Structure formats: C-alpha cells, structure tokens
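dude i think i finally got it to work??
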Amino acid sequence: MKPTPTPALGWNHPSVQNAFALGLLLMSFVFNFFIAQKASLTYDEPMHVLYGCRTLNGNTSRFDDSKMPVSALNAIPILLERHRLLSKKVVISQDTAAELSKTGRIVTVTFACLLGALVFIWSRALFGFWAGVLSLSLFIFDPNLQGHATWVSTDLFAAFGVTLTLYSFWRYYRSPSYRTASWAGLSLGAAQLMKFSLVYLYPILLILGLTLLVRAGKRNRNSFSLWRVWLHAALILLLSLVALNAGYVFNGTGFRLVDYFFRSSFFETLQKWPWLNRIPLPFPRPFLEGLDWVKYNEISGANRGPAYLFGQTSMTGFPFYYAYAYLFKIPLGAIALGLLALFGRRKTKPFFPDDELFLILPSAFYATLFVFFLKAQLGIRIAMVFFPLLHIFCGRVALDWPSFSRRGKMLILSLLVYVAVSTVSYYPHWVAYTNELARPFGGGYQILSDSNIDMGEKRPALDRFLRDNPDVLMNPQNPIPGRIVIPVNFLTNVMYPMSPATKAWHSWILHHKRPEKVVAHSYCVFRMTKADILDCLKAVLASISSGSGPRPGA
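look at this
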C-alpha cells in the first residue's frame, strides 16, 4: 500500500501563517532594537527607570504623578547588568549609568512585538489571515506606536494594556466561563499598572457589557442567564483588584479617604462625604494618590509647559488639539484604510456586529475623551492607547480577500505601501513623523511640538552634525550673527522656564526665518545676518515694552 502523500503547505496552513507573521515581527524587533541602542535618553526616561527600580525593591510610594509599576519590567535587565558590572568592580560613571538605563529598553521593544502578535491574532480571528497581515503591517508601520517602542516609558505598555484587556473580554464574550472571566479580570487589573488613562476601561467595559446584554436579550431571551453574568462580573472585578494591589505590593491597601492628602477638587469633594470617607478602600495608596495628582496637574496646568499648535502657544490649551494631532501624525494611507473599513462593503445588520464593538466602542470613547475633554495637551503619545484597536479594525477591508477583484487588491496594497513608504522616510526618527498634509505648512514643527516632535532621543544625530559643522553655535541665549541651531522645543517656546526676551526672539525666528537644514527633524539650523539680528531685536523690544508676549495666546 502506497503511503498517502503529505499535502503541500499553503497560506491556509496555520504554521505558514504564523511563520509569516513571526518574520514580520522579527523584522520590526531588529529595527527597534538598533534604534534603542543608538538613541540618547529621553527627558523623562531616568524617572521611569528610578520608579521601576524602586518598585522592584518593594517601594511603590509616589514621588511624581505619572510613573507606573510596569516600569519594574524595564528595571529587571538594568539591575541585572548593574550587578554584573559591580561584580567585576567596574566603576559606574554618569555615562555608564546612561548606558545601563538603555538596557531596560529591550523590554519595551519585546512588548511591542507581543502587541504586534496580539494585533495579528485578533484580526485573523475576526476577519481572516490576510486581514491579520494587513493589521500587523499597519502596526509595524505606525510611526507613533513604533516611535515610543524603543525606550523606557509607559506609552507603549498602555496601548498593550488596552488591547490585551479588550481581547481578553472578547474571548470571555465568545466563550463565557470562569477561566476566561479570570483572564479578563487579571488583564483589566494589570492594565491599571501601565497608565492612569486605562482606568477608563472600567466604564468602557460597563457600557460595552450593557450594550451586548441588551442585544443578547433581544436575540434569544430563553438562553439568557443574567445570574451567571453577574457572578462572572463579580469575579472579574475581584481579580482586577487583586492584580492592581499586587502590582503596588499592597502599599496602603485599606486606607480610608480621610487618611489621604488630596490635591484635586474632585477627590477633596469625595473626601468630605461622611458616609464614604471612613470606609476602607480596596485600592493601593499610590494608585489613588497618582489619580488625584494627575487630575490636579491636568486642571491646574502644574508641572507642564504651554501647549503649542500652528505657531502659537497657550497655557490653557487649544480646542480640538488632539484632533489636529491625529490628522497630521497618522499616515494618510492608514486614515484611508480606516474609512474603507468603516464604510466599505457594509452588509451586516446591525451596522457594527458584536465582535466589532470591542474595537469601535473603546476607540470612540477614548477619541472623544482626548479630543473634547483632556486638558493636558502633551502630545499624541498620551492619546494613542487605542491605535492597535484601529489597526485590527482596518483588517476588515481584507475580509474575504481571495474574492477581491484585481483592482480592489491593488487599491488596498497601494494604500499599505503608501503607509510604509511615508513612515520609513522618517526612519529612525519616527517620533517626529508628520504626514504629507504638514508639508504646505513648512514642516511638522510649524504645526505641533513637544513630544510630537522630540523627546530628547535624537542627541547623537545633533552631536554628529555639530562635529561636522564646528562653526554652528548650539542654542544661543541671545540672537547672534552666523549659523545657529535651535531645538524645536526651544524654538516653539514649549520648554520652560525661558525669559520673555528669549521667547520673543525665538518667536520672531519661527515666523520670519526658514531653516537651511533641520537635523533629525528636531534641530533647526538658521543663518542669521546682521539685518536679521536688527529686525529680531526690534521685535523683542516691541514685545517686551508692550507686554504682549511672543504671540497672541502665549
């Protein structure tokens, strides 16, 4: 009897699909690994490292508003390398300490790949293999997520936490059981260790759950088990609190509201409620202190410089700031694919099937929150926690890919190539990415600034330029003739403190001079003539004498 021939492996085979996705993720890992090795430390990276090391030592007490226990993962390779150096009696200098901090970046790079794998797995489960490839490709060529995937911070982890939590709840929805409910609760609690904006997952999941309950009740009332839903919900809430408290090593768990010193009016009001303020709370103390501190800083504007938009600065912010950030910092090809996924080939009733609600509802909630309500306008990194959900949703355009016409396939592939080319044109400085809509305005720094353009990670590129151009003076305090280079965040007056005179002459240069070169999209090189200096000084004197500041709204 002849043996049965082994069927050839094709694209429909799970092993081939997984290998292809793994290859894309390895490519992304290699790119990000080398970026992480070469980039200088960002402005707030040392503070994330410090809090992570303290957390590993069991001290989660808060020394600022926004550092999170998840940074302990970054601190593990840092402390291991430090132990290795000390065992060899190596003296840890300031430069060595900076390189030590960089070793923690490998954790963020790894989690970026895990997030990419999750995007692929979820998109494939919803829409098929080619949809998974499309979603993964959009993730890999997302300049905002990838730009923050190469250093020690919480922004990439926050996107991972949102995606993992929604995926876990989707798995629970598809197969309700104590096991899937447990994973959903643990992922929800773990997400609270990554960024304070993820506390909104609780109302998001409540709204999502009620919506699905209403839909399920209308479809089949007989098989609907409300008591089991409530039992699973209690388990999810309990396990989320366990994970949250464990992440903060149960620091201050059980404290009452009267035991706290709050800054924000919201928490001060809660503290005055007599029936509430003496109840032991099931939250760790640093968690509530951080929520309060973040809320206070958002409302008061403490500990942050002015917001910047279209050449103007403002301490009170701008309407629709994050809408402009989305418009100019998301690749246009990705926006087009999103619109196709939203409106193209819609034959389902209701318009969004239950599975897609796990992507659309949280994205709509967060986008509305950031665009209309968030007062802290610190850059798109704050407002990109739902981007992986959009990448997964965009995979919908590749649903039933084999049945597409040649023209349809070419359209989608062209848009994907457009995204890739546009993003790669900024390599390795992805943080500074702005799409083609920014070009008529003279570049990204004419529209956005702060962490939208630079986080301090591009110092090696600046050092090379200054070494090759010794005549260029770096960021002078006063206008002088010759070639000068000014960092974008200084040029746009978002760095603080700066004197009124410095702000005034920076503003004059910003609006009257075009740089002869922009190094790494973040350092503007100007050639100042004596006539420029005279005009600049006149503008400075006029601004100071009138007390009007560098620009209206400053």
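The chain is about 55% helix and 5% strand.
im so relieved honestly
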